[in-house]
Amino acid sequence: MATMKAIQMHKFGGPEVLKFEDVPLPKVEKGDVLIRVHAAGVNPVDWKIREGYNKQASLPMIPGWDFSGVVEDSDGVEGGWKKGDEVYSRPDISRNGAYAEYIVVRASEIAAKPKSVDHIKAAAIPLAGLTAWGALFDTGKLSAGQKILIHGAAGGVGSLAVQFAKWKGAHVIGTASSDNQKFLHEIGADESVDYKKTRFEDLVHDVDMVLDPIGGDTQNRSWQVLKKGGILVSLVQRPSESEAAKFGVRQAHVFIQPNASQLTHIAELIDEGKVHPIVNKVFPLAEAGKAQEFSKAGHARGKIVLRVV
Fold this sequence. Notes:
Layout: E1 3-9, E2 18-24, E3 32-42, H1 44-50, E4 67-73, E5 86-89, E6 102-106, E7 110-112, H2 119-123, H3 126-139, E8 147-150, H4 156-168, E9 171-176, H5 181-186, E10 191-194, H6 200-203, E11 207-212, H7 216-222, E12 226-234, H8 241-247, E13 250-253, H9 260-271, E14 279-284, H10 288-297, E15 303-307
Parallel strand pairs: 8-9, 8-11, 9-10, 11-12, 12-13, 14-15
Antiparallel strand pairs: 1-2, 3-4, 3-6, 3-15, 4-5, 5-7
């Protein structure tokens, strides 16, 4: 049986449950494409699943739902994909992931990778990019001239959200630590708040939208900065309907599904130089446990990526 190297987990737990081992090469079913993974993005959902936040996940499993690579086999699929095509994707989270030399994904889930960046930077885009895009535009309906507060603006989702919002013509306010204040302005933020020194609600008022990838107390304090009719969009927990009603605003929780057409649009923005993926640190595939712990610490600027090739 043909095998490949992959990170596989046989039980839930700490980073030690991630095993670098030989596993069977994935089988290509009708409508699937076999991809040689060059780089895989690391996201908070990865270590949350590893720790057992979703006990429904089948084990053993290969984590990682963010990658860039090259088509290896695409026998008869729609879309015209052929061997050697460079692609990237946020694939179906219910299937084995990209912490591996190869991954099988549905042809409908992949898009041509941005030509202007390498696989490392391309792998930093799909999940964070689709999350930011969906939250801002599909759910939040952000438009030119509106004002948005983005929490965790230096992170994987936040750094892309700042750039997307600025491209759209919004007035962007971001929260980040002292070390990232200059960085926020470099990627397009109009205003920045050092959350370690200042309570954001003392400075920010009458925004049309809050993007919340943090939850908890940060979310609770965000209601008061919204203007009437504004919207709080959370990526981590469903906001309180009663609190939204109390402040006369709207609320939403988003979890993004694969979307090849949006990835194509994002790739165009990157190739046009309007958006720049930010990679904070690169780990070899065998050190996925270290990469996930770095992610869990919550201080990464931009994304963390595993180098597979």
